[in-house]
């Protein structure tokens, strides 16, 4: 870390979406039509969500990504600014729609379909344009909702410049082994871990990447392996679950904030798990994200 103890700059390179969220009594099965309750238009995208999660926790965060030249794009940039996220280098792409996610919330769970839109324009050319700004970062957070070649380029750039990288590999896709070695932390859920590594025993897999691989377990919490070889599991915080959308993004953002502040991995995961639990008690990814005081109070209980 370059400036441990100071207000470190965290950069997020990733997706910016408008979430169209419908609530229903249940999630429909294949071929089934059901009646929804309400429809909401909520700012989202894994990258933007994680940036907002960190800003709400008091971090110094800049978002890098692309939106379309439409109403959604303008609204999403204004929302990020309002949440305290720096947006100066977000690109507005002409003749391209802003990314959209279609989310169904029911049965205390959700399903999501994403149309990438302008997120596909977070390409090598765009990364080249913002490269000098990324080099000013003390930590970089990435996800899989932008082109893979851009993710690879940013990881290589940060590795060469000794900038820690957290990669949240969602949605899951194959990764080159050398990229896994270059990232500082890799944070899949159980499903994503199986796609990345195959049918490997979870504890064996964690021990392969001590204090690098962090697997989120949904309602069961989150786990990693200490450098001593001990498996560390932080149980989920009990709560009144309303919407799990964005819980993983909250966890990643909160973990990133605490690591940037110099916390050890157990302290960071406890903080992140509490933040993720709080985020499920409200509807919407960003709307449910807690502020610092809420997380601190939850950890005291």
From TrEMBL:
Q: How is its activity regulated?
A: Activated by a monovalent cation that binds near, but not in, the active site. The most likely occupant of the site in vivo is potassium. Ion binding induces a conformational change that may alter substrate affinity.
**Per the database record, which ranges form the Carbohydrate kinase PfkB domain?**
9-290
Cofactor binding note from Swiss-Prot or TrEMBL? Requires a divalent cation, most likely magnesium in vivo, as an electrophilic catalyst to aid phosphoryl group transfer. It is the chelate of the metal and the nucleotide that is the actual substrate.
Its signal peptide is none
Pathway linked to the protein: Carbohydrate metabolism; D-ribose degradation; D-ribose 5-phosphate from beta-D-ribopyranose: step 2/2
Judging by the UniProt lineage, the source's domain of life is: Bacteria
Q: Enumerate the residues binding substrate.
A: 17-19, 45-49, 145, 249
Q: Which UniProt keywords apply?
A: ATP-binding, Carbohydrate metabolism, Cytoplasm, Kinase, Magnesium, Metal-binding, Nucleotide-binding, Potassium, Transferase
Q: What is its main location?
A: cytoplasm
A UniProt-annotated Pfam family: PfkB
What Enzyme Commission number(s) does the record list for this chain? 2.7.1.15
Where in or outside the cell is it found? Answer: Cytoplasm
Q: Which InterPro entries match?
A: Carboh/pur_kinase_PfkB_CS, PfkB_dom, Ribo/fructo_kinase, Ribokinase, Ribokinase-like
Which reactions appear under catalytic activity for this entry?
D-ribose + ATP = D-ribose 5-phosphate + ADP + H(+)
- Identification of the protein by name: Ribokinase
Per the UniProt entry, what species is this protein from, by scientific name?
Answer: [Clostridium] asparagiforme DSM 15981
């Amino acid at each position: 870390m370059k400036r441990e103890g100071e207000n470190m700059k965290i950069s997020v390179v990733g997706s910016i979406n408008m979430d169209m969220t419908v609530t229903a009594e249940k999630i429909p099965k294949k071929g089934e039509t059901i009646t929804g309750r309400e429809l909401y238009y909520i700012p989202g995208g894994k990258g933007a969500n994680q940036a907002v999660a960190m800003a709400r926790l008091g971090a110094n965060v800049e978002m890098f990504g692309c939106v379309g030249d439409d109403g959604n794009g303008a609204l999403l940039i204004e929302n990020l600014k309002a949440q305290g996220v720096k947006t100066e280098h977000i690109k507005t792409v002409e003749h391209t729609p802003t990314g959209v996610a279609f989310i169904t919330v029911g049965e205390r769970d959700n399903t999501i379909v994403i149309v990438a839109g302008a997120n596909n324009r977070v390409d090598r050319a765009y990364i080249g344009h913002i490269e000098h700004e990324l080099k000013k970062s003390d930590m970089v957070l990435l996800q899989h909702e932008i082109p893979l070649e851009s993710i690879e380029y940013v990881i290589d750039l940060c590795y060469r410049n000794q900038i820690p990288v957290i990669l949240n590999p969602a949605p899951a896709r194959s990764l080159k082994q050398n990229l896994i070695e270059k990232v500082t932390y890799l944070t899949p859920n159980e499903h994503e871990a199986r796609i990345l590594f195959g049918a490997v025993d979870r504890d064996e897999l964690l021990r392969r990447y001590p204090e690098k691989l962090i697997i989120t377990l949904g309602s069961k919490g989150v786990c990693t392996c200490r450098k001593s070889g001990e498996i560390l599991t932080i149980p989920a915080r009990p709560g009144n679950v309303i919407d799990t959308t964005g819980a993983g993004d909250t966890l990643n953002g909160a973990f990133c904030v605490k690591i940037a502040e110099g916390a050890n991995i157990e302290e960071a995961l406890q903080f992140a798990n509490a933040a993720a639990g709080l985020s499920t008690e409200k509807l919407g990814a960003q709307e449910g994200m807690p502020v610092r005081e809420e997380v601190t109070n939850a950890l005291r209980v």
